[in-house]
DNA sequence: TTTAGGG
DNA sequence: CCCTAAA
């Protein structure tokens, strides 16, 4: 989908502010959503990976988008349309908003009931690389994730022992945020580390609040950049355990809301290129989920009545400006965070989670206190911006909204550019001082930044007679469900090198072909749902709801704009069951390990759907039940990604030749087992094809050959072997024929 | 799934 | 590399 950046600040209520369409009936509406899925409230986090002597700093940012806002936005866009696809994320205009009061207002009126988790599998690119000599040979195990779940309590304590630990890099993300931020709140701690909610065991994410004042923050940031361990930790996560330890100004009620976390990250490059809009808002919504026990389970149902009811509360609690009427309408929407909490609780047997009931949770470890719950609401001072939800590179479908956002952003935040630059500078200073210096010197830090996110695609079909309300509810649920199902578990960090997933954690960098001088760009990371906890089993019956894509007639009428996922956006890799081959020998083929290329979207989705049942809609909805289906491309052509090209190395060719000499042609399976058993990406068909090309290559003149030159010696052997086995084959046939004749 | 071939 | 018919 695109890249999202969250900046601190106001919530974007614009979109939501005009609930014109509320209550209207949609005639035909089917949508497909590309939702970034974010497991938790990850916001900006940085990962430090130790590669031998080299540390790679990764930062990734996850943004939370208010589902409702987004939804509302979509609804508006789609009204009257049969289908809309991947609407751009609404951006809030910061324009008229003044800071203080206004802001509060925004906080209070959050229509954004659900924060949709958006997310990501971020691809992190190396910004710099360290050149330390020693590291080159030392890199042994480089990227490894800890199998051990991180205990919640230990959020901040992730240590190097584990293959990697993530710590927020203060220097980066914060900078951007604070620049933009207008909020008066200050953070005592520059960054907070959130442990991922229970869900993400392996991944801890750091969140930082943008709210803090810019100046203050800067100081902190820069300072902290170097001491990762120090950052104060706050946890916004669902777990109570992860409470923030950050001092917030009074206002800041960053509270325990999970969703509060704001994400920001600085991506200098990106910013430069395209800052865009603000996406989400969040926390302030005080409202609770519908008080009714959720019949369906975990998904919150949004209802109008609820909204109204909540209104008062919100105002009170916020004590700030009242939300505009319009906004109020939306308030009721439950927030994701709440939802989550509820969900968590459900596990424990608790059912409802409305604002009222929250207190119940107090008992939990680090339980939320009533006070806290109240504080939570007012918090939203963050502004979320996203950059190009549809990456330009995608060539994709931009809604035409894109341009404006940017403008607004710049305009609204006067000095933004300045700030950004400043931020950048700061970042550069803080972090990169070392990093860059290292470039030339021996410092061993490498900085990574997220280049893109992969967003899975969900397809939601909605009956024509559905009301918007139902749509919201359903959608929320389904989407949430899907999201949770997928991401409910912990996140797993995947390493992608040159487009291939490297699954073998035990593999050394060297084995993986990752080297400093080598294209570090080629190194990427993905956040994937953790297989272990991924699924929420829904009854099989639930599946019945899933509709094949084909069934969606309305789709045919969809707007011309192809819903195609922008190229830039790759599908999240959801390999539910990555296989690890810890002890495996790579033998000659370094590349052998690179696992399969990124799974094609469809595949991954399907897999998800199947395995985790992520997409299974809630069981019993009304007639209005929505069916969520993985966006399967009807035709393979659309989505199926061509496997990445993996030219055969000379060593591979040699192995192939040797095997064929021995086994002959026509026994590719044996050849594979014999010579390429470890190279999973080489199929017998590949070997056969390679042999075919080798034969061809051997026959043509050297001048005509392309690619990595194959030693003539090998080519000669190829011809010889080919001739020999061809002859054998011919003989076999002759023999066979003669036998048959005899029989006849 | 593997082969064998065409694209 | 992909796609497919045939085993």
Automatic annotation (TrEMBL):
<keyword id="KW-0238">DNA-binding</keyword>
<feature type="compositionally biased region" description="Low complexity">
    <location>
        <begin position="393"/>
        <end position="404"/>
    </location>
</feature>
<feature type="transmembrane region" description="Helical">
    <location>
        <begin position="51"/>
        <end position="73"/>
    </location>
</feature>
<feature type="compositionally biased region" description="Basic and acidic residues">
    <location>
        <begin position="350"/>
        <end position="359"/>
    </location>
</feature>
<dbReference type="GO" id="GO:0005634">
    <property type="term" value="C:nucleus"/>
</dbReference>
<keyword id="KW-1133">Transmembrane helix</keyword>
<feature type="domain" description="HTH myb-type">
    <location>
        <begin position="640"/>
        <end position="699"/>
    </location>
</feature>
<feature type="region of interest" description="Disordered">
    <location>
        <begin position="393"/>
        <end position="415"/>
    </location>
</feature>
<protein>
    <recommendedName>
        <fullName>Telomere repeat-binding protein 5</fullName>
    </recommendedName>
</protein>
<feature type="region of interest" description="Disordered">
    <location>
        <begin position="311"/>
        <end position="336"/>
    </location>
</feature>
<dbReference type="InterPro" id="IPR001005">
    <property type="entry name" value="SANT/Myb"/>
</dbReference>
<dbReference type="GO" id="GO:0042162">
    <property type="term" value="F:telomeric DNA binding"/>
</dbReference>
<dbReference type="GO" id="GO:0010597">
    <property type="term" value="P:green leaf volatile biosynthetic process"/>
</dbReference>
<keyword id="KW-0539">Nucleus</keyword>
<feature type="domain" description="Myb-like">
    <location>
        <begin position="640"/>
        <end position="695"/>
    </location>
</feature>
<keyword id="KW-0472">Membrane</keyword>
<dbReference type="GO" id="GO:0000976">
    <property type="term" value="F:transcription cis-regulatory region binding"/>
</dbReference>
<feature type="region of interest" description="Disordered">
    <location>
        <begin position="350"/>
        <end position="374"/>
    </location>
</feature>
<feature type="region of interest" description="Disordered">
    <location>
        <begin position="585"/>
        <end position="609"/>
    </location>
</feature>
<dbReference type="InterPro" id="IPR057625">
    <property type="entry name" value="TPR1-6-like_ubiquitin"/>
</dbReference>
<dbReference type="Pfam" id="PF23603">
    <property type="entry name" value="Ubiquitin_TPR1"/>
</dbReference>
<dbReference type="InterPro" id="IPR031105">
    <property type="entry name" value="TRP_plant"/>
</dbReference>
<dbReference type="InterPro" id="IPR009057">
    <property type="entry name" value="Homeodomain-like_sf"/>
</dbReference>
<dbReference type="InterPro" id="IPR017930">
    <property type="entry name" value="Myb_dom"/>
</dbReference>
<keyword id="KW-0812">Transmembrane</keyword>
<dbReference type="InterPro" id="IPR029071">
    <property type="entry name" value="Ubiquitin-like_domsf"/>
</dbReference>
């Amino acid at each position: 989908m695109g890249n999202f950046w969250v900046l601190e600040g106001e919530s974007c209520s614009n979109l939501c502010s005009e609930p014109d369409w509320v209550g209207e009936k949609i005639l035909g509406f089917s949508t497909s959503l590309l939702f970034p899925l974010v497991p938790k409230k990850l916001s900006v986090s940085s990962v430090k990976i130790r590669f031998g002597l080299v540390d790679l700093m990764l930062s990734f940012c996850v943004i939370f988008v208010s589902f409702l806002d987004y939804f509302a936005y979509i609804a508006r866009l789609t009204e009257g349309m049969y289908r809309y696809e991947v609407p751009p994320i609404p951006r809030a205009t910061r324009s008229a908003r003044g800071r203080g009061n206004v802001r509060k207002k925004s906080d209070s009126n959050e229509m954004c009931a659900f924060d949709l988790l958006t997310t990501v599998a971020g691809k992190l690119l190396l910004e710099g690389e360290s050149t330390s000599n020693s590291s080159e040979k030392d890199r042994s195990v480089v990227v490894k994730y800890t199998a051990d779940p991180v205990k919640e309590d230990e959020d901040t304590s992730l240590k190097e022992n584990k293959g990697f630990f993530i710590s927020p890099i203060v220097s980066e993300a914060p900078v951007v945020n604070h620049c933009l931020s207008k909020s008066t709140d200050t953070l005592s701690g520059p960054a907070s580390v959130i442990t991922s909610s229970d869900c993400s065991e392996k991944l801890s994410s750091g969140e930082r609040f943008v709210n803090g004042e810019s100046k203050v923050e800067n100081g902190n940031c820069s300072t902290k950049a170097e001491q990762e361990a120090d950052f104060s930790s706050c946890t916004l996560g669902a777990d109570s355990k992860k409470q923030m330890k950050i001092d917030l100004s009074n206002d800041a009620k960053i509270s325990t809301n999970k969703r509060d976390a704001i994400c920001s990250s600085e991506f200098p490059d990106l910013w430069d290129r395209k800052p865009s809009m603000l996406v989400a808002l969040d926390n302030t919504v005080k409202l609770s989920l519908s008080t009714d026990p959720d019949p369906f389970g975990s998904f919150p149902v949004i209802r109008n009545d609820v909204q109204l009811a909540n209104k008062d509360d919100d105002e009170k609690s916020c004590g700030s400006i009242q939300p505009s009427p319009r906004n109020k309408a939306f308030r009721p929407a439950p927030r994701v965070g709440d939802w989550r909490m509820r969900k968590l609780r459900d596990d424990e047997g608790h059912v409802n989670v409305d604002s009222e009931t929250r207190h119940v949770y107090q008992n939990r470890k680090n339980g939320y206190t009533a006070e806290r719950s109240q504080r939570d609401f007012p918090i939203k001072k963050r502004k979320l911006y996203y950059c190009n939800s549809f990456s330009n590179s995608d060539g994709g479908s931009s809604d035409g909204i894109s341009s404006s956002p940017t403008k607004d952003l710049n305009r609204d935040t006067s000095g933004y550019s300045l700030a950004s630059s400043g931020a950048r500078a700061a970042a550069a200073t803080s972090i990169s001082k070392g990093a860059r210096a290292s470039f030339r010197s021996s410092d061993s830090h490498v900085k990574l930044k997220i280049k893109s996110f992969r967003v899975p695609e969900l397809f939601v079909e909605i009956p024509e007679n559905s009301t918007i309300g139902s749509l919201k509810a359903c959608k929320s649920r389904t989407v949430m469900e899907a999201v949770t199902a997928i991401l409910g578990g912990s996140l797993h960090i995947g390493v992608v090198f040159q487009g291939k997933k490297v699954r073998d954690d035990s593999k050394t960098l060297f084995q993986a072909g990752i080297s400093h001088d080598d294209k570090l760009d080629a190194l990427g990371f993905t956040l994937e749902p953790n297989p272990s906890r991924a699924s929420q089993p829904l009854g099989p019956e639930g599946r019945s709801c899933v509709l094949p894509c084909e069934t969606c007639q309305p789709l045919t009428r969809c707007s011309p704009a192809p819903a195609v996922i922008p190229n830039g956006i790759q599908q999240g890799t959801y390999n539910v069951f990555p296989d690890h081959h810890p002890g495996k020998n790579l033998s000659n083929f370094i590349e052998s390990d690179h696992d399969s290329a990124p799974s094609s979207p469809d595949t991954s989705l399907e897999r998800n759907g199947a395995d985790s049942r992520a997409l299974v809609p809630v069981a019993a909805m009304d007639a209005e039940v929505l069916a969520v289906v993985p966006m399967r491309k009807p035709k393979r052509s659309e989505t199926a990604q061509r496997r990445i090209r993996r030219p055969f190395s000379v060593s591979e060719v040699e192995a192939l030749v040797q095997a064929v000499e021995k086994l002959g042609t026509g026994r590719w399976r044996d050849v594979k087992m014999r010579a390429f058993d470890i190279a999973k990406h080489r199929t017998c068909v590949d070997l056969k094809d390679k042999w075919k090309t080798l034969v061809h290559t051997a026959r043509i003149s050297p001048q005509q050959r392309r690619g990595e030159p194959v030693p003539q010696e090998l080519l000669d052997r190829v011809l010889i072997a080919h001739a020999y086995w061809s002859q054998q084959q011919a003989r076999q046939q002759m023999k066979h024929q003669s036998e048959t004749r005899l029989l006849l």
